[in-house]
Amino acid sequence: MDLPKLAIAALGGTVSMQSLQSGEGVVPSVSGEALLNTVPELKTLAQLTVETLGLLPGASLDFEYLLNVLCWANFQINQGAAGVIIVQGTDTLEESATFFDHLWEHDEPLVLTGAMRSAAQAGADGPANLLDAGRVALAQSSRGRGAQVVIQGQIHRASAVRKVDAMALHAFASPVTGPAGLLMEGVVRYLQPPVARQVLPVPQNTNQTIALLEASLSADSLLLENVVALGYDGLVIAGFGAGHVSAHWANVIETITRHIPVIIATRTGGGSTARSTYGFEGSEIDLQRKGAVMAGFTCPRKARILLWLLVGCRQQEHLASYLDQTG
């Protein structure tokens, strides 16, 4: 029996990094082909197509770049791939996964992975993560689950996963739901059923810009007051607690919502914004009355991605319903 086809795109990131000059730190320099050579077992599981689409740190990826990667991934599925793996930097892994999850229209799995240790470090985790990603991408039980992150033996839904530590090996978690699955003795085991997703059309517009501001104690409103004048097409605010801002910010937000959509998320890193608990000026009840939309469980960074996509395909009027589904 022929082995299934598996497509792997290497974008760069820590997994591809090594030092090219003593004392200068590590930089992306290891190709996808070279990375694959560190995982010989993967070649026994599938017919592999590997392409190095870039050698960028995760912080330098952008939406336009990811749309090109999406086109590549769609092509691979249309050519018969049973699944696709994207290897990239972990700095933006949760955001890339969210971006792809909103646009992935196939039942075939799309799996993202990376590494916390560079290719040159002792105990580099990249090869093990890539092997696990391959197992997940090839598993029948992974079909219909959209984009997922596979790292350190865990499988995370794109909508749930967050990077929760800057440098630790176990830097990723799904704080609200827990991991969607695990890899045990090389076997993919899901702990949660697939979640219904509503896939968005690929945006025709890519010039839209969405601002992200965080509320903080005694913060001035200079940037907030100029969001519309600066030409932004939407605004996400990482609010206090369950989605709150100061009374002064609330008044500015009321003016902004007359021009562009505004999402209020929580800056806490866990839990959901409230809907109907607090009634003071700047509370969630007040902000909704002023035209803002609450993000629910969707974190500020992921809310920004959703709003960018909705504005790009002219569906921002459906923002509240999408957040209800995803958050």
UniProtKB/TrEMBL annotation:
SMART domains: Asparaginase
One of the Pfam families matching this protein, by short name: Asparaginase_C
Enzyme class: hydrolase
Listed CDD domains: L-asparaginase_II
Residues covered by the L-asparaginase N-terminal domain: 5-194
GO molecular function, one term: asparaginase activity
Keyword annotations: Hydrolase
EC number assigned by the record: 3.5.1.1
Family: Belongs to the asparaginase 1 family.
UniProt name for this protein: L-asparaginase periplasmic
Organism: Pseudomonas fluorescens
